[in-house]
């Protein structure tokens, strides 16, 4: 897999890009716990565009109760990013790298190589970690990105967020992840990893689904 000029050591795990593997759930990176979930967000181009703006503006993370701080886009030639097609094959860097975008508060949108700090509580459990955007998807009907842990988290691993405007006009949101415990408590009691992941997935759904946004 081509990873542009991605440098080893910039994330704290080896299986970079494994959330893109079709067989992730059956063959996750050694020692990790995989997870995957998809939700229908609605239908039509308007829903897709609105969801895209929310996702790239860290809406899933914020809606899950996490504070998004210290967002630092990549600079210079350190990391040009990598995109993926529908089959998980690496393609040319996304055009998201060509022009940095910002939300209404001036916070940079997710783009390849961006580093971000997330902190808060997830299902009553502490979340405090630095992560990096290690890949992007930017296609007319598919948009998303993958986040990898850099350090400080109670788990080590990767999660990917993907929006698809499918041929039947439905818009779907898919999250895939794999985690390995690094915190003492999580290493001693591994079910906490699954519990934490379930809480995160529920938070992402509530953040992105119009059903939760409208309270209906």
TrEMBL record:
InterPro entries per record: DUF1990, UCP010260
Ranges for domain DUF1990: 13-73, 108-206
Superkingdom per UniProt: Bacteria
Pfam families to which the protein is assigned, alphabetical: DUF1990
Name of the molecule in the record: DUF1990 domain-containing protein
Lineage, broadest ranks: Bacteria, Bacillati, Actinomycetota, Actinomycetes, Micrococcales
């Amino acid at each position: 897999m081509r990873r542009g000029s991605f440098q080893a050591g910039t994330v704290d795990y080896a299986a970079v890009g494994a959330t893109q593997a079709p067989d992730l759930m059956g063959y996750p990176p050694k020692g990790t716990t995989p997870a995957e979930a998809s939700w229908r967000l609605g239908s039509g181009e308007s829903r897709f565009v609105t969801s895209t703006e929310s996702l790239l503006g860290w809406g899933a993370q914020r809606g899950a109760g996490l504070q998004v701080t210290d967002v630092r886009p990549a600079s210079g030639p350190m990391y040009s990013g990598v995109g993926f097609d529908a089959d998980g094959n690496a393609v040319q860097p996304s055009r998201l790298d060509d022009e940095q975008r910002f939300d209404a508060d001036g916070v940079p949108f997710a783009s390849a190589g961006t580093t971000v700090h997330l902190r808060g509580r997830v299902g009553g459990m502490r979340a405090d970690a630095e992560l990096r955007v290690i890949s992007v998807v930017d296609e007319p009907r598919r948009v998303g990105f993958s986040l990898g842990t850099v350090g400080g988290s109670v788990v080590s691993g990767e999660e990917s967020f993907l929006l698809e405007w499918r041929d039947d006009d439905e818009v779907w949101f898919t999250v895939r992840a794999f985690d390995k415990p690094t915190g003492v408590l999580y290493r001693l009691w591994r079910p906490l990893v699954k519990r934490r992941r379930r809480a995160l997935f529920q938070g992402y759904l509530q953040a992105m689904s119009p059903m939760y946004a409208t309270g209906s």
